[in-house]
Specification:
- The protein contains one helix and eleven strands; from the N terminus they run H-E-E-E-E-E-E-E-E-E-E-E.
- The chain is globular.
- By secondary structure, the protein is mainly β.
- Strands 5-7-8-9-10-11-1-2-3-4-6 form an eleven-stranded antiparallel β-sheet, with no helix packed on it.
- Strand 1 and strand 2 form a beta hairpin.
- 12% of the residues lie in helices and 56% in strands.
- About 11% of the residues have low confidence.
Length: 156
């Protein structure tokens, strides 16, 4: 009798393990297009592609300012708060890094640095329905000018 109950318990534990849902996908992942009408920014267009990369993300961003200046950059990082090199051209300086920290399932903070000095803080929030991504940026740009923007992106 003891063996039957033990076997039954092991079967139930095994089934519960198999039935456990997989970890939900990162809501940051996707292709996001800047919604200029809902944003407070100096850009007239922008697209960000965020892909899974191991236990982190690969981010590729393209922005066009209202004056026609274009930016294209990419970086790969984990949610560990460590600096990650950014390659390409950004509005935030010639030698930028970004450090990602997950606040909760839908919120990420990024600390941007240029030549080791903190130049910006971003808070990125994906809506509960996963359709909107809001990026709040405060700091300075490559010219030392203040940046205080809210960019709203729609998932494509």
């Amino acid at each position: 009798m003891f063996l039957k109950r033990t076997f039954a318990a092991l079967v139930l534990v095994g089934l519960a393990t198999v039935a456990t849902p997989a970890q939900s996908p990162d809501p940051m992942v996707g292709t996001w297009k800047l919604n200029v009408a809902k944003s407070k920014t100096t850009y007239k267009s922008g697209t960000t592609v965020i892909e899974p990369a191991g236990d982190g993300l690969k981010v590729t961003a393209d922005l066009v300012r209202t004056d026609g200046t274009t930016y294209h950059w990419t970086f790969t990082g984990k949610y560990d708060g460590k600096d990650n090199a950014v390659t390409g051209t950004t509005p935030y300086g010639a030698h930028p890094t970004g450090a990602l920290t997950r606040v909760d399932a839908h919120t990420v903070k990024i600390v941007g640095k240029n030549d080791g000095k903190v130049t910006l803080n971003q808070t990125i929030v994906v809506s509960a329905d996963g359709k909107t991504r809001t990026v709040t940026t405060k700091g300075t740009d490559a010219k030392g000018q203040p940046v205080d923007t809210i960019a709203v992106y729609d998932k494509q």
